Amino acid sequence: MRKDDKDRLIEQLTREIQALKEELESFRLESGRLCQALRGRVSELEAELAEQSHLRLQAAGESEFLKAELDDLRRVREDTEKEQRSLTEIEKKAQANEQRYTKLKEKYTELVQSHADLLRKNAEVTRQMTVARAAQDEVEAVRREMQEKVKAAQEVAERQERDQLEQLQELQRELVSSRVELDSLKTNMASSQQSSEALSTQLVALESEKAVLVQSLSKVEAELAVRGDELERVQTSLATERESGVKTAEALQNQLNEKESREQALESQLVAARWSSLQGAVEEAEKIIRDSLAQIDDPAHISCTSSADYLASRCQASLDCMDRLHPTREAFLADNTGVSELMRVVTQCGHLVGDTIVQGSATSHMVPVEQADALSESVKTCGAEALDLLGQMKQRDSLAAADNGKLKAALEAILATAEKLRPRGLELQQGELGDLVEQEMAATSIAVESAAARIEEMLNKSRAVDTGIKMEVNERILASCTELMQAIKELILSSKNLQRDIVESGRGAASMKEFYAKNSRWTEGLISASKAVGWGATVMVDAADLVVQGKGKFEELMVCSHEIAASTAQLVAASKVKADKDSTNLHRLQQASRGVTQATAAVVASTKSGKSQIEDRDTMDFSSMTLTQIKRQEMDAQVLVLELETRLQKERERLGELRKKHYELAGVAEGWGEEEEGTG
């Protein structure tokens, strides 16, 4: 191999190594940029969490403001009817606070979605590291190829050196042979001179031959000298090229070692980032559990209720998530690459267990005292075990030994309690249960249609009879009720379509009625929710009719609106529990549910506005009253406020007892009594 070829090969390899270095540097910069973006996103999420905490504190401040406003109402000098409406206004503001809490919960759902986006970005970083490893393999292949080429050049140089040595030895042998022959000629010449002068002619010839031989010898020696110089130049050139090849190989090895060091540093950073992400997910799950435990101790939570069916579904979902936690944790401990799946499972477990705690506490508000105390204690134990498990998963040394057995036992205890409290049904036949679903959904649609028609009829009567502010108030209230009925009709239609998709995708070769019978718990939930929606629509129309006639209370209409919102939420939950999350009809159902929520808020707002207009029209005139009369009215108002506060407390206690009694009667209607007799 010539020197120019070797130089070109070395330059080519140098350029390729430089290109690989530039590509690795770009990978490193891109990885740094992605890590910086991830850290920025985490900071944004922390800021949004801080904003949520601020909104929660603001809600607490507004609750304190409501208490102060209640104290101010004690000094209001109005008549008995005015004081009663003021107290009702305070309850409406408390309900508004509950709506604000619902908005905070939706904001938290958006944060969960942002967290999922972070998980996808982390997967992209992992993919780029895989590309970097491929580039490293390519550099290793180039290094091996360079070593092979250097080795080949050395072998070529060694072969040339051996050939030249053989040629030199051959020339030396020829020189020795010539010298031997010359000596022989000299001997012959001496003997010829001694033996006879007659041989002089032959001697001259020999001398001539000697001169020729000497000339030949000189040529051979000169050629030998030239060959020696050439051999020395070749050896020098070979040593130089060998030294250059060694230096190039050492430079390549140093670059390779430096690249491996950088890759090890990047790998260490990636492992640290994965562990930091996992700790963030665990801490977020801990916050969710603590927030759920704080909610069940909040006095405002006592008005929240839930069903044993929904509690059982949430509890079962939590247990399923617990079953996925162990294999994902083992996969992460095996190679530290399954962090995104483990983060997703930890976050999902936090949400499901937190929801189970809240739903368990809400269900305890609807059951007898002994069962309520046992259920409350079970959910608190579940929260404590969940925090203990998450605390172990936050530390590297305790992650492998973290055991979710106690948490699963606590969830199974809650599930067993929910199963005992769950309505068992009336043991309907397969055909009867399937027909009952269709009948109840049809009856609900008819009830909503009838309610909408009655509202339209009331609106026409009001326009014909009422005038002024009363007509304006009635039109606004009835218009908002009409919009609510339309939203409920859209919700029922979306629910039917989604149920049809669920049945078609899950029944297989079975019939629709067999599918309903096989999933009896889900079917009974649909029936119960559908009944509640139809009943709520009928009651709200009756309340609206009384308000328009001047015989009813605005508060009754607002309570009916909230009851319809709760019933539709139950129908949505029952409809989507078996639905595919990517279903188009599921998205339509969720959109219809938001429409019902907005329409309910519009009914409440129009009712509040109408109430304010009516009250402003009946404002008391104090201009003609004396100081004594005003003082007397003030004392009477204070006495009335105290009486109303006492009555309000008693009515709240009565409401709690009514809810518990309603739960017991619903259990009897659904077959609980028959089950207890059978077990007795």
Automatic annotation (TrEMBL):
All residue ranges annotated as the I/LWEQ domain in the record: 425-666
Cellular location(s): Cytoplasmic vesicle membrane
Family annotation (Pfam families): HIP1_clath_bdg (PF16515), I_LWEQ (PF01608)
Regions annotated as coiled coil: 3-107, 132-223
GO molecular function, one term: actin filament binding
SUPFAM superfamilies found in the cross-reference section: I/LWEQ domain
GO biological process, one term: clathrin coat assembly
GO cellular component: clathrin-coated vesicle; cortical actin cytoskeleton; cytoplasmic vesicle membrane; presynapse
Keywords: Actin-binding, Coiled coil, Cytoplasm, Cytoplasmic vesicle, Endocytosis, Membrane
InterPro entries named among the record's database cross-references: HIP1_clath-bd (IPR032422), I/LWEQ_dom_sf (IPR035964), ILWEQ_dom (IPR002558), Sla2_fam (IPR030224)
Family from the record: Belongs to the SLA2 family.
PANTHER family xref list: HUNTINGTIN INTERACTING PROTEIN 1, HUNTINGTIN-INTERACTING PROTEIN 1
The protein's name in its UniProt record: Huntingtin-interacting protein 1
Organism from which the protein derives: Larimichthys crocea (Large yellow croaker)
